[in-house]
Amino acid sequence: MTGLSKEILIPQPEISRRVQELADQISRDCAGEEILAIGVLKGAFVFMSDLVRAMAVPCQTDFIRAVSYGAGSESSGNVVITKDVELPVEGRNILIVEDIVDTGLTLQSIVDHIKRRNPKSIRVCAFLDKRKRRKVPFEADYVGFSMDDGFVVGYGLDFNEQYRFLPDVYVIRTDVD
Ligand code: 5GP
User: Fold this and answer.
1) Which domain holds residue 65?
2) Which of 4, 21, 135, 171 could form a disulfide with 103 if both were Cys (CB 3.0 to 4.6 A apart)?
3) 102 labelled catalytic
C-alpha cells in the first residue's frame, strides 16, 4: 500500500520571523517609493497578506494568476495568464510576490508579461526557492527560505487544493508499506 504523510518543515514562528526580516529589507530598499505588490494566485495569498502587513512602506495590492500547462506537476514553460493585474502598472514600482520558484518558468513568464507594461522597476520576492531545480536562470531579489527538493504544502501551498489553510509548512512524504 502507498499512502501520503506530511512532516513539519518550517514551523509558523520561524515563518513569522523570516517574513518580518524580508519586510524590513524590502522597506529599507524601497524607502520613499510607492509599491504595487502583485501576488501570484493562489499559492502566494497567505504569504502576500503577511508580507504587506509587515512592510513599512505604502503599498497597493493586486493579484495575477498563471497556469502552466504540461504533463504532471512540473512546469512546461507553456505559461498562460488566466487572471491579469487590474491596476495600472506603467511607471510604477512593482513587487511580485510568489510562493515558490521551482523551474523558474512561471516567474520568468510573469516578469516578461509585467515588463511589457513598462513599470518603473520590478522586484521579485519568493517565499521558497528550489534553486537546484531551475530550467531557466531566474533569480528572485528576496527569498524567504531555500530548499533542495521535496513537495511542500501549507501556508497557502496546496496538494490537490488541500492544506492551504495550514499555518506551518510541511513536506509531503510517500509512504510505502
Ligand atoms: P515553476 O514554474 O517555477 O516550476 O513553478 C512554480 C510553481 O509550481 C509554484 O508557484 C507552485 O505553484 C508550484 N510548486 C512548485 N513546487 C511546489 C511545491 O513543493 N509545493 C506546491 N504546493 N507547489 C509547488
Assistant:
1) 5-173
2) 135
3) yes
Note the pTM of the prediction, 2 decimals.
0.94
pLDDT digits (tens, 9 = 90+) for 50-67: 999 999 999 999 999 999
Which CATH number fits the domain that encloses residue 150? 3.40.50.2020
Q: Is 68 in the pocket of ligand 1 (CB under 6 A)?
A: yes
Atom of ligand 1 nearest to the CA of 138: 3
**Number of other CB atoms surrounding residue 10 within 10 Å:** 20
Helix (H) or strand (E) holding 29: helix 12-29
Q: Which of 99, 109, 110, 162 most suits a substitution to test ligand 1, by most atoms within 8 Å of the C-beta?
A: 99
**Are residues 5 and 171 in contact, defined by beta-carbon separation less than 8 angstroms?**
no
Domain count within the chain: 1
The cell for 108 is 520568468
- What would the pLDDT profile of 124-148 be if each residue is shown by its tens digit? 999 999 999 899 999 999 999 999 8
